[in-house]
Amino acid sequence: MKNFRQATENFSPTRHIGKGSHGSIYKVALRDGIVVAIKRPSPATTPKSLKMKLSYYIFYLTQPAGTIGYLDPSYTSPGTKNDVYSFGVLLLEIISCRRAIDVLQTPASIIEWAMSLIQLDQM
């Protein structure tokens, strides 16, 4: 607990990068330069039985940061081409009412789904 408070400068607003329904996220750079996000669960959303066991989590932030399904599979660095690809995925979601990745669909990837329709000349 003490290390988390030190790393986040006592959960300083300058370290705060987001808030969800289950808690707040704080950005921290470790000594070796790796950037991590520390999640501080909200007391109101954490069951009492887990509060003692489950007070903090650490998630590594990876590069590129983005949601699977929106990133170009050949992503190497940020740029216009990647933005256009992501925008295309967004347009496909709007037009088709499908998610970018939906494990309940076959294929799960909206891109694979759209490409199969294009190959069948149905899009």
UniProtKB/TrEMBL annotation:
Gene3D superfamilies: Phosphorylase Kinase, domain 1, Transferase(Phosphotransferase) domain 1
Superkingdom of the source species: Eukaryota
Molecular function GO labels: ATP binding
Signal sequence region: none
InterPro entries listed in its UniProt record: Kinase-like_dom_sf, Protein_kinase_ATP_BS, RBK1/2/STUNTED
Keyword presence, Nucleotide-binding: yes
Alphabetical UniProt keywords: ATP-binding, Nucleotide-binding
Keyword hit for Kinase: no
Residues involved in ATP binding: 39
Name the UniProt record assigns to this protein: Protein kinase domain-containing protein
